Amino acid sequence: MPTQRKPTPRKAAYKATEHASSRVETDRHIPLIILAVIAALMALVLVFTQCTGSGNKENLPATSEAATSSSSASSSEAAESSEIEEPTNPAAKASLEEYSWEELKEISSKIAAASSTTDALYVAKQYRLVTPEGQLDPAATKSLTLNDGTSAKVRIIGFNHDTASGGSGKAGITFMFADGVGSAAINQDGTSAGGWASSYATYYVGVELWNNMPEEVTGKIVEVTKASNTGAVDGIAETGDVMWLPSYIEVMGSVDAEFQEASGTLQQEGSQYQLFKDAGVTPSADNSALVMHSGSQASPWWLRSADTAGDGTWFYVNAAGHAAGKAPSDSSYLLVPCFCI
Q1: What is the DSSP letter of 242?
Q2: From CA 74, how far away is CA 167, in angstroms rounded?
Q3: CB 323, CB 316: distance < 8 Å
Q4: Rounded Cα–Cα distance for residues 85 and 125 (Å)
Q5: Does residue 279 sit within a domain?
Q6: 308 within domain boundaries
Q7: CB 225: neighbour CB atoms within 10 A?
Q8: Which residues pair with 171 in a beta bridge?
Q9: pLDDT tens-place values along the chain, 341 residues long
Q10: Shortest CA distance to 196 belongs to which of 262, 161, 248?
Q11: Alpha-carbon dihedral 187, 190, 192, 196, rounded to 10 degrees
Q12: Which of 44, 55, 129, 231 is 20 to 30 Å from the Cα of 62, by its Cα?
């Protein structure tokens, strides 16, 4: 049997080297192969995605947008809900109509104690006296029955707007009747001398109408200081009133160009109440928030601002809800008083 010759050490070394080189060469190509396989798989995934998604391509963005919109809305509602804490003592109710006058007095005290307009509005939001946007709604009213049996409604026109007499700070809530509660002349003798402070209407509103108010309301009312012109340019007088008529500027917010000669004086009679500001009231156009009724009929109503020319005329709002001009003070127009609690 032939004898098998062992390779010489040199050849064995050569074969080992050759084997090692082959292994190194194979190892060097493994990463390239893996990368190629990965690239091929990614290409297949891309083709598959394009094929299956082409039928729904138009729907995907809309669905995504709707989901985003829904998510944003939910987040916004959650944020709004978390911002307003549910109050106690008294508890919040669904509308102004549902509160008792005792509860409204307590809420007014909280508003009066607020350190800023923002804080006061926050309290009003807590008690749903304003919209979620913080605006007053002209349609939000509270009913009351006058002593003579007449049914009436009032609405909130401002928060921390009026200053209580005697330096005791702000009155939290200002109300105004939603329609006329009587008709009268501003001055029965047709004059304007002395303005609101000397007028017959001051007596009629502050005594006659006051005595017709239910005790559950009068017991909560706060006397406030009001500034009114005296029927002369630059003539301003202050009065302490429990009930009063709003001034031209408190309703309109600015003075129409037609009455610029009286502008400087009229602007000293206060500032526009929030309700009229929120309703977009201006002196140049009709506004439904200013339409007042006697029964079912829209009628003109008096403001407490006399014309500064001293000619016996006073400013009023016409039946369409527009501060159209001035009328002789002995005309009988609706009276729509305000009061604070």
Answers
A1: S
A2: 46
A3: yes
A4: 9
A5: yes
A6: yes
A7: 15
A8: 162
A9: 333 333 333 333 333 334 434 443 444 444 455 555 466 566 554 544 454 444 443 443 443 444 344 444 434 443 444 478 888 889 999 999 999 999 999 999 999 999 999 999 999 999 999 999 999 999 999 999 999 999 999 999 999 999 999 888 999 999 999 999 999 999 999 999 999 999 999 999 999 999 999 999 999 999 999 999 999 888 999 999 999 999 999 999 999 999 988 999 999 999 999 999 999 999 999 999 999 999 999 999 999 999 998 899 999 999 999 987 999 999 999 999 999 99
A10: 248
A11: 10
A12: 44
Q: Do the domain assignments include residue 215?
A: yes
Which domain, by its residues, includes 287?
A: 183-340
Instruction: Give the C-alpha separation, 121 to 297, whole Å.
Output: 34
Sequence letter at residue 187: N
In angstroms, the CA 120 to CA 118 distance is 5
Q: For tokens 């009155």, name the residue.
A: 171
Nearest to 293 by CA among 181, 213, 130: 181
Query: Taking the alpha carbons of 114, 116, 121, 122 in that order, is the dihedral positive or negative?
Result: negative
What is the domain count for the chain? 1
For residue 194 the two structure tokens come to: 């002395």
Helix (H) or strand (E) holding 76: helix 59-83
Q: Which two tokens stand for residue 137?
A: 């709604």
153, two tokens = 């409604």
- CA distances, 132 to each of 59, 69, 84, 123, 152 (Å): 34, 20, 10, 12, 27
User: What number of other Cβ atoms are within 10 A of residue 219's Cβ?
Assistant: 12
Q: Kind of pairing, strands 325-328 and 170-177?
A: unpaired
218 inside domain: yes
